[in-house]
Amino acid sequence: MPPSKFPLLCYTGQSCDVSPFLDSYGAVEDVLIASGATAWTNQDTGITHILVVHLGLWFGTKMPSLLMNPNHTRVHDFSVCNHPFDPNHLLGIVDTDSGMLIPLKMSGSTAYLVLVYGPRSNSVNAISLFSHLTLSGIL
After folding, report:
1. Predicted TM-score (pTM) of this structure
2. Domain boundaries, the chain
């Protein structure tokens, strides 16, 4: 499995069991609650931003991404449209301060971000080079 596209910034010291919506799948136990960050490049401007997610679910090597709750993002002054058939909104996350759209893609019923990935853009050193957008929670 490739390295995580959301390198960890810190752990909260908390964990939880994550249960799926179907009884035919077992729960994943002791999933860490953490902060992570990743690089995202705005395709319209070419500017790279660091997207920071606090209080996300981090599955370690079991999943190459970090799960975030869109309701946490909404509370943090972003507008989130994760409904692909909404006729009034574009599928994505909108920074309400700047109006910038971070587009989402769909895979089945899952909305996800298309991210820049590579040692240069997602290293801990690179994270300090770009502007930050904090999408959810505060530790």
Report:
1. 0.76
2. 8-136
